[in-house]
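Can't paste images in this forum, so I'm doing it all in text. The chain is below; anyone willing to post the predicted structure tokens underneath?
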Amino acid sequence: MRDSYKTKQKELIEHSIKSYKNEFTIKELFTKLNEKDQTIGLTTIYRAVNGLVKGGSLSKNMGSDGTLRYRVLEKCDHVGHCLLKCESCGKLTHTDCDELDELSKHFKNKHHFEMDQKDITIYGICDKCKL
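Text version of the structure:
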């Protein structure tokens, strides 16, 4: 996670974000930071997180409860990757799929639309939740 201008607060925010194994909300991050006697305001956290989203270090998704949830993105040079998100349990699965390249070509050729493949989330139901 890199940012062109770093303050001590941004470093603390980034350090806390790296400790999350799954998705997190701004409220959860705020609580975690302030439990450690850090006095970092919500505005500062929102700005830092939004900067990380724009920079490609985090993804942002709407949770089933309508809450924005964030996740650290893995470094990947392959354009055909996406997240599969279960709408029932919220599980996220990172996957590589060459079919996304074909879908991108289809959108470009047939619909004159260039698909941005750096942050794709496909929603559905995982096999575990189907049972």
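Residues 8-72 form a domain with the Arc Repressor Mutant, subunit A fold (CATH 1.10.10.10). The beta strands are 58-62, 68-72, 81-86, 92-96, 121-124.
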